[in-house]
């Protein structure tokens, strides 16, 4: 006899912090299975990235020149704070210097950890990796599943030749739009408006002149996926080579919670959205 358990009432812990209830959690899991299918189509080998990134390594990649306002640093309590807390001191009463920096940052994108792990590598004709990681961003505001302190990002990273990077992005676009159509999602496709700290800086101006990132957007404007052309930037900064030449790289990214949001927007509730996802998955059971 199967016992039907009651659905718990779950409350979000704070602004920008969301707990997915069982229905939305199942939708999340099923969607990521579909993204994994796309990663398989792109020949991405599964890996797991690190939970923290060295700040000095990110500095070498111009992260703090471009996105210092998004970064969230990892800190820890010093010895005096640990003693005070263990004696019952309220955490809000600790001095500002009670949490010294560790030199590590929370990742704001999954690909950073993967790229750093490849430093100095020769990748032959091309290497493809896929991982899902929790990413964190300090935003100006937070809104439902559209904008969170922390969210999951499934990425498929390509490192190799310039032509290989172009083919990776072309194929990714085709696969994403095909999946969206089967899921009943109408997506826009447009150049990204990345939140550079200095919008008049050289990197921001170059991006406007020659867009390297395109986003797939839901009808309400939520960017739920992107394709990103890195040119040879990471190849030069990380001494990555492909067949002896400086490597080019590109990545395909899915914001998993944002896809949950888009499916709820398109289908009205989690039950109908989940039914649509499972129908799509059943069309290709071998995957």
From TrEMBL:
InterPro entries on file: aa-tRNA-synth_II, aa-tRNA-synth_II/BPL/LPL
Residue stretches spanning the membrane: none
One Gene Ontology molecular-function label: aminoacyl-tRNA ligase activity
Keywords from the UniProt entry: Aminoacyl-tRNA synthetase, Ligase
Statement: the UniProt record of this protein carries the keyword Aminoacyl-tRNA synthetase: yes
Domain Aminoacyl-transfer RNA synthetases class-II family profile positions: 127-285
Stored Gene3D superfamilies: Bira Bifunctional Protein, Domain 2 (3.30.930.10)
Identification of the protein by name: Seryl-tRNA synthetase
């Amino acid at each position: 006899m199967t016992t039907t358990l009651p659905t718990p009432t779950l409350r979000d812990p704070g602004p920008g912090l969301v707990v997915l209830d069982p229905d939305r959690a199942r939708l999340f899991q099923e969607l990521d299975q579909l993204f994994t299918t796309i990663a398989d189509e792109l020949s991405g080998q599964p890996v797991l990235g690190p939970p923290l990134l060295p700040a000095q390594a990110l500095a070498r990649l111009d992260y703090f020149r471009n996105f210092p306002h998004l970064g969230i640093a990892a800190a820890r309590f010093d010895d005096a704070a640990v003693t005070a807390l263990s004696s019952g001191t309220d955490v809000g009463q600790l001095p500002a210097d009670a949490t010294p920096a560790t030199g590590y940052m929370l990742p704001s994108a999954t690909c950073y950890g993967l790229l750093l792990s490849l430093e100095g590598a020769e990748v032959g004709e091309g290497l493809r990796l896929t991982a899902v990681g929790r990413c964190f961003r300090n935003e100006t505001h937070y809104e439902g599943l559209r904008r969170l302190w922390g969210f999951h990002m499934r990425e498929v990273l390509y490192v190799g030749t310039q032509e290989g990077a172009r083919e990776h992005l072309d194929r990714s676009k085709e696969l994403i739009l095909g999946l969206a159509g089967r899921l009943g999602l109408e997506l826009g496709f447009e150049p990204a408006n990345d939140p550079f700290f200095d919008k008049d800086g050289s990197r921001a101006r170059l991006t406007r002149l020659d867009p390297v990132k395109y986003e797939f957007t839901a009808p309400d404007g939520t960017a739920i996926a992107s394709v990103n052309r890195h040119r040879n930037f990471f190849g030069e900064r990380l001494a990555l080579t492909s067949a002896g030449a400086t490597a080019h790289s590109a990545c395909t990214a899915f914001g998993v919670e944002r896809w949950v949001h888009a499916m709820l927007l398109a289908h009205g509730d989690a039950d109908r959205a989940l039914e649509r996802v499972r129908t799509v998955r059943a069309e290709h059971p071998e995957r």
